[in-house]
């Protein structure tokens, strides 16, 4: 086998041929398990590939490494694939490997690769899992330019929440290329992004609130109680004494947790707060209905505040 420093010893067919391996020999080694075919024209060391495949994302990592190998010098993992390597949330899964390379543009569907043609400054490149990858700030800016606004906010919020980037770092990357396509949207995403959002659902809700004309809420506010807060809320509008809570798929999977949530809601309402709950399906499919429920709560909360109902908070 030719020596390779890539993930799982990945080599291309061209490299095997240059090292003296015939097509018949390659097929024999593959049948024996000495080689593992990752994709068309690219192989990994069999034992090392099987070790990698024992990890949850092992296949995805092998496929990314294979994409870099077949694309050739200068290929850098970027966009959605870079977000995966940095553990940054995406709104939807991307099946194709996304790379940036100065000599390529378009895609290679046969190999499951999507290519962006652009030269990358050295300071925008780092290494993850032994692969060249755009730094988190460049990754977020690239996605903020190319995804929908709400999908880009999910990504930017996630990177900020995980403290992988700061807003000044994002602004600095964007400033290096103000004429990029999508730069204006990227600037809007950076301005709107908030690292206090703790999940894609909370990020989507913030965008829906904006699109429906609701005022910006306070995030992760501790509210209620006389000596100590009753709990931390997802969204809070102080003027209207209104709280909004997102109900993720796992929130009520545990009956004890569900009962604790009901007790907390009762305590908050006793303190004069309005509490509105909504789900992923509701905020993504009928956001205007969620907004209407919140506006109704605003009216009730404002009346309570005017009459002095509940304790101050």
Description:
- The chain is of the alpha+beta class.
- Helices cover 46% and strands 18% of the residues.
- Helix 6 crosses helix 8 (167-175), helix 7 (149-161) packs across helix 9 and helix 8 (167-175) packs antiparallel against helix 9.
- The chain has helices at 13-18, 23-32, 46-53, 58-71, 79-85, 136-146, 149-161, 167-175, 183-192, 200-211, 255-270, 280-285, 287-307; strands at 11-12, 35-39, 42-45, 76-77, 97-100, 106-108, 113-116, 125-128, 131-134, 218-223, 231-237, 242-247, 274-279.
- The strands form four sheets. A four-stranded mixed beta sheet has the order 4-5-7-6. It has a four-stranded mixed beta sheet with strand order 10-11-12-13, with helices on both faces. A three-stranded antiparallel beta sheet has the order 1-3-2.
* Category from helices, strands and their pairing: alpha+beta
Major sheet strand order: 4-5-7-6
How many helices? The count is 13
- What is the end-to-end distance? 69 Å
Q: What sequence of helices (H) and strands (E) makes up the elements?
A: EHHEEHHEHEEEEEHHHHHEEEHEHH
Relative helix content:
40-55%
Low-confidence stretches: none
Instruction: Give the C-alpha Rg.
Output: 25 Å
Approximate strand percentage: 15-25%
Count of distinct strands: 13
Round the mean pLDDT to the nearest integer and report it. 90
Largest sheet: 4 strands, mixed
Number of folding domains?
3
Shape: elongated
């Amino acid at each position: 086998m030719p020596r390779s420093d890539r993930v799982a010893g990945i080599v291309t067919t061209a490299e095997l041929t240059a090292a003296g391996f015939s097509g018949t020999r390659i097929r024999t080694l593959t049948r024996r398990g000495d080689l593992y075919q990752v994709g068309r024209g690219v192989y990994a060391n069999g034992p090392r590939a099987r070790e990698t495949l024992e990890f949850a994302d092992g296949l995805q990592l092998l496929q990314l490494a294979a994409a870099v190998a077949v694309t050739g010098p200068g290929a850098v993992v970027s966009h959605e694939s870079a977000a995966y390597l940095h553990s940054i949330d995406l709104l939807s899964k991307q099946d194709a490997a996304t790379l940036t390379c100065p000599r390529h543009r378009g895609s290679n569907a046969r190999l499951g690769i999507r290519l962006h043609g652009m030269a990358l400054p050295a300071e925008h490149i780092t290494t993850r899992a032994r692969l060249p990858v755009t730094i988190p700030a460049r990754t977020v800016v690239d996605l903020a330019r190319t995804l929908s606004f709400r999908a880009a906010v999910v990504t930017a919020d996630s990177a900020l929440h995980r403290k992988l980037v700061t807003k000044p770092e994002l602004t600095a990357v964007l400033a290096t290329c103000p004429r990029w396509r999508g730069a204006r949207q990227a600037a809007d995403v950076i301005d709107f992004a908030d690292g206090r959002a703790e999940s894609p659902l909370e990020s989507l809700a913030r965008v829906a609130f904006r699109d429906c004309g609701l005022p910006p809420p306070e995030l992760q506010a501790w509210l209620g109680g006389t000596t100590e807060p009753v709990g931390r809320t997802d969204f809070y509008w102080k003027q209207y004494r209104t709280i909004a809570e997102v109900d993720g798929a796992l929130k009520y999977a545990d009956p004890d947790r569900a009962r604790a949530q009901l007790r907390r809601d009762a305590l908050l309402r006793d303190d004069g707060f309005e509490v509105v709950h909504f789900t992923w399906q509701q905020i993504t499919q009928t956001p205007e209905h969620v907004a209407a429920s919140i506006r109704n709560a605003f009216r009730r909360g404002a009346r309570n505040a005017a009459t002095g109902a509940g304790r101050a908070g």
